[in-house]
């Protein structure tokens, strides 16, 4: 296509179907958390999101391989991905902000410290500390103990940091035209992502059954699962994206100097890794 043209895709049903699937999944999650029901809706929504992602990826790949994208489309994709990652930064900033507010202000206030120390009148015997193992309200049972950051969380941190390195090697190999090297290092990155997911599942089992860390275990359990859970979902999505990039590499897709689909997946994965480092420091260590 000419350099002055701009590709306008045909009418697509994927945005509305994706929104419906995502909405169903979110409603299912809400019902599960509040009323301990809604699991079928959650599963249907999750499968719908995965299906829409796969089919939408397929259409975009066909358009790209058909030579329909030019430099203007490339700029549009880069701006779009940049704003998407910015929205993700704000998403996690909200949850980190809630964690910092609770730890810095709310708990000290309930213990009688700070400008609103009068809040201590609610629970006079409350001892402010973090992690909060003894919630002020006796009706809420806190966790029996917390996970050591130097065991499974440290292993997962090393896995994700290593995966960023292997992905960078794969990206540089693609730019230099070493496709087999790119394929091998990218496959290693996907395997590391899968390892992280499995270890996170083991950690959740240990936290829930052996440490008493549940969503009902006071504010510590709630913030722990919200922060690590949403991050885990992002790792799952990122692993699926990288797996699709691996399939495309095997099929001979991407040029040395034109592969923004691959590059965008790298942006996303590195962002997910940076978020985990923040989680490791502020949720597990301090």
From TrEMBL:
Annotated InterPro entries: Cyt_c/ubiquinol_Oxase_su3, Cyt_c_oxase_su3_dom, Cyt_c_oxidase-like_su3, Cyt_c_oxidase_su3-like_sf, Cyt_c_oxidase_su3_a-hlx
Membrane topology, from the record: Multi-pass membrane protein
Keywords assigned by UniProt, alphabetized: Membrane, Translocase, Transmembrane, Transmembrane helix
Pfam name, any one: COX3
Top-rank lineage group of the source organism: Bacteria
Localization annotation: Cell membrane; Membrane
TM regions (residue ranges): 12-35, 41-61, 82-102, 182-202, 222-247, 267-285
Span of domain Heme-copper oxidase subunit III family profile: 2-286
EC code(s) of this entry: 7.1.1.9
Similarity comment: Belongs to the cytochrome c oxidase subunit 3 family.
PANTHER family: CYTOCHROME C OXIDASE SUBUNIT 3, CYTOCHROME C OXIDASE SUBUNIT III
This protein's name: cytochrome-c oxidase
Species per Swiss-Prot/TrEMBL record: Vreelandella lutescens
Gene this chain is encoded by: coIII
